[in-house]
Every structure is written in C-alpha cells, then in structure tokens.
Amino acid sequence: AARRVIALAVLLAGVASLDNGLGLVPTLGWSSWNRYYNSVSEDLIKRQAQAMVSTNLSQLGYKSIHIDAGWLLPQRDSQGNLQVDPKKFPSGIGALADYVHALGLQLGGYTDLAKGSCGTGPGSLGFYDQDAQWFAHVAKLDYLKVDFCGSGITPGGDDELAHWGMLAQALNRTGRPIFYSICTKTVVAANATGSDSPYHGQVIYAPPPSWTGPQKYNVSNSWLV
Questions:
Q1: Do 181 and 109 contact (CB within 8 A), yes or no?
Q2: How many Å apart are CA 201 and CA 12, to the nearest integer?
Q3: 211: phi > 0 → left, psi -120 to 50 → alpha, else beta; which?
Q4: Which residues of 171-204 are buried (b: 16+ CB within 10 A; e: fewer)?
Q5: Which of 19, 140, 169, 202 has the fewest beta carbons under 10 Å from its own?
Q6: Which residues, in sequence order, are CB contacts of 168 under 8 Å at separation 6+?
Q7: What is the DSSP string of the chain?
Q8: What does the pLDDT read at residue 183?
Q9: What angle do CA 85, 33, 200 make, to 5 degrees?
C-alpha cells in the first residue's frame, strides 16, 4: 500500500532549546496511533521495525519506531512505577527496546502531561522524575510523545507551560538523550477564521471532522505528531 508522509509545521513566537544534539533535523519513522490507536503489541512493533529495515527506509533516515497510547496499564505498581501491559508486551519493554536498537533503530513511547491520558496509561502528573527515569532506564526510549488529554493542569497559560518545563527538566536529569515531543491542548483558536476555520477548537494535528475512516487510514502510516 502506498505510504504518505504528513508534514506538520507549527509556528511559534519564540523558541528556546537545549544544544544537546537532538532535534537538529525532523524525526522520521513510523507511529502506531493513526492506524492502531490503543491496539498495540510487541509483535506489531517488531514487524514494523523489521519492515523499516527490509524496505531500506532506515537507510534513508527513517529510524524511529514509535509506540503511542495503549502500551501502559492504567495502574502503577506498588512502588509507583509505570507498567507496560504484559499481555501486549510479554517479553517486557526493555527487551523490545533492545530488539529495536539492535536493528539500528530508535524506540519511542507515550505518556500524558496530566493525570490520565488519551490512551490506557495513568498520565505522569506528580511522577515526572520517577517516570522520566523509567522511560530512560527501563523502557530505554529515544523519543517521548507527551499528550495533554488528562486533568489536573490548567490549559493554555502559565500552569501548563510550567508543567511542560518540569517534565523536560526531569528527562534531562536522566542522562539519556530523549527527544521530547509535546502535544498541547489546543493550538487552533475556537474563533479561527479563513484557512484555519475547519480546525477551530482542535489540536492542530487532528484531521477535519469530515474525514471518513478510509481517508484517515490512507495517511495512517504517517509521521509525526
């Protein structure tokens, strides 16, 4: 099947970043969300990683395999740690990361800035440092997508901005380079006009409401949000 790549550009009034070698060029690869939503598994990720190599896409720079929502259990363990769903990932996330890395690829994962998420996980609010260490040293992630679907943080102002910064600092303290990809609550104004009007009140990567299921699947092997 034909594969299409969607490019997403977000204009910011001002941008500040760390000079740590990450994000110098756009991240290229594959993400599970648009096609599989919460129905992810160890077998699926392995097959996608194998396909990235066998099609030689990895030689062209497509090196990131991203597990979006659906990989985590809703509850933490007795120590407050995140837990990967053992039915979906029977070998454990560390072993899967080793498999992906052995192919010369990078592994991405998912959480939410707040309490709860758009998937099955509990969200990281109140656990930023603990979760960052888990992402770095248990899941061995190279890329982390952070949604803002949950509750407990006031959107669109200083409270939200402060929490994005807190999680960024927690990731930096792990000592592992992890690309930090954020999905803010809403970036298209509810009263947007002109070319933005079809997307008013939506997060910018959401497809128009008029799109059908098959239309969404036509771009389902796309990267990246």
A1: no
A2: 18
A3: beta
A4: beebeeebbbbebbebbbeeeeeeeeeebeebbe
A5: 19
A6: 180
A7: ------------S------SS-SSS---EEESHHHHTT---HHHHHHHHHHHHHTTGGGGT--EEE--TTSB-SS--TTS---B-TTT-TT-HHHHHHHHHHTT-EEEEEEESSBS-SSSS---TT-HHHHHHHHHHTS--SEEEEE--SBSS-TTSHHHHHHHHHHHHHHHTTSS--EEEE--S--S-TT--GGGGGGTTS-TTSPPTT--HHHHHHTTT----
A8: 84
A9: 130
- N- to C-terminal Cα distance for the chain? 22
Token output for 42 = 């160890």
Q: Tens-digit pLDDT profile for the chain (225 aa)?
A: 444 333 333 333 344 556 677 777 778 899 998 889 899 999 999 999 999 999 999 999 999 999 999 999 999 999 999 999 999 999 999 999 999 999 999 999 999 999 999 899 999 999 999 999 999 999 999 999 999 989 999 887 788 889 999 999 999 999 999 999 888 765 545 555 555 444 444 444 445 566 566 655 554 444 443
Q: Give one word for 29, left, alpha or beta, with left for phi > 0 and alpha for psi -120 to 50.
A: left
Give the predicted TM-score (pTM) of the model.
0.78
pLDDT at residue 224 in the model? 40
The total number of residues written for the chain in this structure = 225
